[in-house]
Specification:
Radius of gyration: 19 Å
CATH architecture of the largest domain: Alpha-Beta Barrel
Oligomer: single chain
Helix content: 25-40%
CATH superfamily of the largest domain: D-amino Acid Aminotransferase, subunit A, domain 2
Largest sheet: 9 strands, mixed
Number of domains: 2
Strand content: 25-35%
CATH class of the largest domain: Alpha Beta
Structural class: alpha+beta
């Protein structure tokens, strides 16, 4: 049986090695966050953007990041983990960061610890667009608060867990999360974009959606491709009006939606952006 390794506070360990106790604040209070990064077998092309997001999230949660949690250390650690975990090509890197033990709701320290894991990403071929379009629907049971905490990938992911459970039970590929204003917010693990008459729309960050790295990259690439973009409030009915719906995340890039209720969609703009994304990712790897 293959042994999987992780890194805890910059120390490589067997993944079954205990690294914290039941007093862990992420376990008790969800007092932490995570960042997911794509490993291409050669590099993490958007690592700088992920580091920026980590710093922004730490500032929101008033966490003091360890001195060793930087671009060079993360890149070196992931290289080592990819070799030890036999990741031959594409991989999924996850960085969990949490406040150190001490206190009840009110913490005794703002110092943080971190765990890095890296596993193979099966079925991936760069940021290749999915051949089969995805079938989606709304998740309406619980709404997401539209405040600053909505922009981070919190250790408390209960909303997404329950939405994911609904998705599986109803045999959808993903579901749309609504915010507390009943506006469209995001998918369970991705940002949401729609295209109407060649114009790109996505929920504004003020709507409570996660400020995803891939969201930011796609907005930039679309602008450079002279595609008009608007960050706005979107209503569920706008999904019906759309010519295209697609989702973005750091692991898979762009995935297009083919069906929402009785509506069927195209993938012209999403295909164009997927091609541009792959070209851009290659240039970042070669830097």
């Amino acid at each position: 049986m293959t042994t999987e390794f992780i890194s805890f506070n910059n120390q490589i360990l067997d993944k079954d090695t205990p690294v914290f106790t039941v007093a862990n604040r992420s376990f008790n209070y969800g007092d932490g966050f995570f960042e997911t990064i794509r490993w291409t077998g050669q590099d993490m092309p958007f690592l700088k953007q992920h580091i920026e997001r980590i710093k922004e999230t730490a500032a929101i949660l008033e966490l003091i990041l360890p001195d060793g949690l930087n671009e060079d250390t993360i890149r070196k650690t992931v290289w080592e983990l990819s070799e030890k975990n036999k990741i031959k090509k594409d991989g999924r890197v996850k960085i969990n960061i949490f406040r150190n033990e001490g206190g009840w709701y009110a913490p005794e320290t703002n110092q943080a610890s971190w765990v890095i894991s890296a596993i193979p990403l099966k079925g991936a071929n760069g940021f290749e667009l999915n051949n089969r379009g995805l079938k989606v629907d709304l998740y309406q049971k619980i709404k997401k608060p539209s405040n600053i905490l909505g922009s981070i990938k919190s250790s408390n992911s209960l909303l997404y867990v329950l939405a994911g459970k609904y998705q599986i039970e109803h045999e959808y590929d993903d579901v749309v999360i609504l915010n507390d204003k009943y506006n469209v917010c995001e998918f369970t693990g991705s940002n949401l974009f729609i295209v109407i008459n060649g114009v790109l729309y996505t929920p504004a960050l003020t709507e409570g959606c996660v400020g995803g790295v891939m969201r930011k990259i796609i907005l930039d690439l679309a602008s450079k491709s002279r595609i008009n973009i608007y960050e706005v409030e979107l209503k569920p009915n706008d999904l019906i009006k759309a010519d295209e719906i697609f989702m973005t995340n750091a692991l898979l890039g762009i995935r297009w939606v083919s069906a929402y209720k009785a509506k069927r969609y195209f993938n012209k703009v999403s295909k164009t952006l997927a091609d541009v994304l792959n070209e851009y990712a290659q240039t970042k790897i070669q830097e």
